[in-house]
Amino acid sequence: MTYEILMALIVFAFVSSITPGPNNLMLMASGANFGFRRTIPHMLGIGLGFTFMVLLVGAGLVQVFDRFPVSYTVLKIASVIYLLYLAWKIAHAAPVKGQAASGTPMTFLQAASFQWVNPKAWAMALTATAAYAPGQTLEAIILVALVFGAINLPSVSVWTVLGQQMARVLTNPHRLLIFNWTMAVLLVASLYPVLWPH
After folding, report:
1. Can you give the pTM of this predicted structure?
2. CA-CA distance, 77 to 197, in Å (whole number)?
């Protein structure tokens, strides 16, 4: 991989990791509702889960979609259903004071598994391996995965910190309710590219 391609990959990894999407919206909501420390497993699940996903996609998993096009439709339906479920959970999150007793943030395994039904994660993984792993060699695929692994976690952590800072304003149950519903609506809106691709 040339220096120019590596720099382009780093920029792509940063921009695609830090811009709004299902992962970042859920992390912001989790940071606001549960705080930074309790959201760490969620962040690690995203970072490591996505890195593993890039490795498998680059290793040829995408060929499954080519051979069995119906599998892509099944994935799309599962993605929509799961994102709607997560939006409902965010919208109905308990007030901050009740979280310690009743609420639980997403676990490491839940967050890692979510990458497989996250439309943005699929788009990122497919684009990264197609554009920045020329020849689909094992070395290039591993390098793409490592770059994403190094950049993704710090990038998504910004959204958790943002949510945590917003919690200072969300001490009123009414404001928290508005915030949670706004996050839920934005999460549903993130489905637009999946349901109506250009």
Report:
1. 0.77
2. 14
